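[step 3/7] fold_predict: job queued, chain A
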Amino acid sequence: MTKTALLLTAGKATRLGELRNRWAKACVPVAGTSPLAFLLPRLKLAGITDVWLNLHWKPEQVREVAETHAHGLQLHFLEEPELLGTGGTLLEVSHRWGAVPDLVINAKIFTDYNCADLLLEPPSTLVLHTKSSLETFGGFQVDEHQRLLALRPKGPPAYEPHAGVFTGICRPALSWVEQLQQYQAKWPAELLCIVRHAVLPLMEQNHAPRGLLHSGFWCEISTQKRIKKAADMIRSKTY
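[step 4/7] structure written:
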């Protein structure tokens, strides 16, 4: 059975400073690997068969790294001369593929989360990390039924029970695409965001997505400081 993932690999990496002159964020070397090289084989092991990647900053580099680490996955590339935003990319891939991808992952992360588990969950689910700082990242609170209860903005306290930082890993639903289509019809020039223009409106309509709490390994590399921290964490892990 075909299972599809969308890897978000088009970001401009502006917070990486001089590193962005050499690398796309998904290709930044970290402890002997990179987010893209790390994620692709794990998607294969999880049962994914097809992977979409959006291209914008250093597209040929992203394409080359993806093809090197495809491990038999069927790769599909979406060129974005102008960035579409995470929601716009999900909308365009869903249109081209003829179905909503089974998974969406922001390709700037390292994690021990097993995406095969997420494929067993119903669509409209986000993975939240309980050990990352809400003060730094913000996140979501969940209720006793794992429904997203409230958006948790950045700021103290750093940790709260039944809350977590959005990992960038999610299982989208048709309802997300429908919300994005509605927003695009009203504001066609605006960049679409999965969280802002799909998840939050569904929460307001009492159709809140679910939030799965993950307490294992997770880190992201949006800044040079976080790259160093990620490298230290990866070296301490065995995969």
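[step 5/7] annotate
The chain has a mean pLDDT of 97.
The radius of gyration is 17 Å.
exit 0
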